[in-house]
Amino acid sequence: MASAVQSMRICLRAASRRAAATSAAVAPRPCPRPRPCLAVRPFSSTPLQRQAAAKKDDIDRIEDEVEDIADDYEPISVEELQEAAEKMRNDSEYGDARLLQDQMINSINNSVVDAIRVPKKRLPEFWFEDEADPDLLLDEADSETFDEDDIMSMAHGKLEEYREFREYARIAAWQMPLLSKLATPFVAPGSQQPLRFRYTSYMGEFHPAEKKVVVEFSPRDLPLNEAQQQKLRKLLGPRWNPETDIAKMSCEQFEHPAQNKRYLGDVVNKLVENAKDPTDMFEDVAIDTRHHTFKIKPKFPKEWRMTEERRQFLEDTRQKSLLLDQAKEDNGTLIDGTRRIDTFFNAPTPKAEPVSARLSPPVRPLRYQSQRLSPKSLGR
Questions:
Q1: Which long-range contacts (CB under 8 A, 24 or more apart) does 15-18 make?
Q2: Are 223 and 245 in contact (CB under 8 A)?
Q3: Residues contacting 211, CB < 8 A, separation 6+
Q4: Contact yes or no for 289/242 (Cβ under 8 A)
Q5: For 45-77, what is each residue's pLDDT tens digit?
Q6: Cα gap 82→3, rounded to integer Å
Q7: Residue of 221, 218, 272 whose CA lies nearest to 245
Q8: CA–CA separation, 112 vs 104, rounded Å?
Q9: What is the DSSP annotation of 303-362?
Q10: Cα dist. 147→136, 143, 152, 156 in Å?
Q11: How far apart are CA 240 and CA 292, in angstroms?
């Protein structure tokens, strides 16, 4: 009986250690093992001992009760314990109880391990499906059970789309015609506005190219003389088109189009200021046009244009040709192409030669016979 009491005490102690380990896991710095950590004493010859609890807990009371029960019974011999163990092994109910006990112990171990394990930080998913979508028209996560009394969220979204279309249709029908009252006549830019800026808009949508601004101007429109205009063309370099005499520059390095426009205006002002500088007019530098490819566009020759004199000349030439053909027809010297073609295709077929004439061997010439004579005959 003492061994059974001892085993019961060990089981209770193990359970108390697991409970202590669970409480220790809640601390800011948990211990990696399930049992509580003890401070290590570097210079000590005695083993570590646990400090007695100030109050008795449930485990201590159970141990006391077990010891009281053990004192009431007499000790059992080893032979009796072996016989009892053998009977318990042969008993089917004992096996079922042992299996149930193992399952309970495993479940307790799993729960203790799960309580001790430090939760891992969950990494965000690739498509961020776990995040809430603020654009949803209806959040069905916390909604009540669907009672078949309403349409689904996809149908609500389609209705919202039609409502938006109808709203813009009403604006186009009733509000946009009123804008004609604010229209002003077009006035062409004068000499005081030589710069032409171009913007790009995507109708309220964000786009990286929306901040780009392009400026175009011609050196002839600026308040410069001929020498200063030539110097400005040399300073512009590849940004100047020699065919159209228009300079083109763009900027998109700032976030807002207004900032890029201001930067282009400052650049043009610096170019005009440098062009007006009489210190060096770049007279010894030729204008470089290698950056531009001159495309030759074919034009209709002036000599081929139809005029009244040429029309009269062509008419006279046709009349002379008709008169010449009429004279040849009267003399019988005019060649009729249709008759020539009919004569060629309807010509009579030549008669075929007899078969015997085609198969007769040809007569050998005398010179070939003379080559076969012997030298004796030649000597005679």
A1: 15/59, 16/57, 16/59, 18/108, 18/112
A2: no
A3: 252, 254, 255, 256, 257, 260
A4: yes
A5: 555 555 555 455 666 776 777 677 666 656 667
A6: 12
A7: 218
A8: 12
A9: GGS--HHHHHHHHHHHHHHHHHHHHHHHHT----HHHHHHHHHTPPPPPPPPHHHHHSPP
A10: 21, 11, 11, 16
A11: 9
Could you give the CA distance from residue 226 to residue 281 in angstroms, rounded to a whole number? 11
Give the C-alpha separation, 215 to 281, whole Å.
Answer: 25
Residue 287 contacts residue 235 (beta carbons within 8 Å): no
- The average confidence (pLDDT) of the chain is 78
Q: Are 275 and 247 in contact (CB under 8 A)?
A: no
Give the tokens for residue 306. Answer: 């139809």
Host H or E run for residue 216: strand 213-217
Q: What's the pLDDT tens digit per position in 230-287?
A: 999 999 999 999 999 999 999 999 999 999 999 999 999 999 999 999 999 999 999 9
Would you state the structure tokens that stand for residue 82, as one six-digit string?
Answer: 């072996």
Distance CA 343, CA 335 (A): 13
Considering the entire predicted model, what is its pTM? 0.40
- Confidence band of 191 (pLDDT split at 50, 70, 90): confident
CA 34 to CA 26: how far, in whole Å? Answer: 12
Concatenated DSSP letters for 29-94? S--SSSSPP-PPPSS-SS---PPPPSS--HHHHHHHHHHHHHHHSPP--HHHHHHHHHHHHH-HHH
SS3 197: strand
Q: What is the CA radius of gyration of the chain?
A: 57
Name the residue with tokens 């065919």: 243
Rounded distance, CA 308 to CA 276, Å? 54
Question: Which pair of structure tokens corresponds to residue 290?
Answer: 């290698």
Which amino acid is it at 183? Answer: A
Q: At what angle do helices 257-275 and 226-236 cross, to 10 degrees?
A: 130
In degrees and rounded to multiples of 5, residue 234 shows phi and psi of -70, -35
Asked if residues 38 and 44 have their Cβ atoms less than 8 Å apart, the reply is no
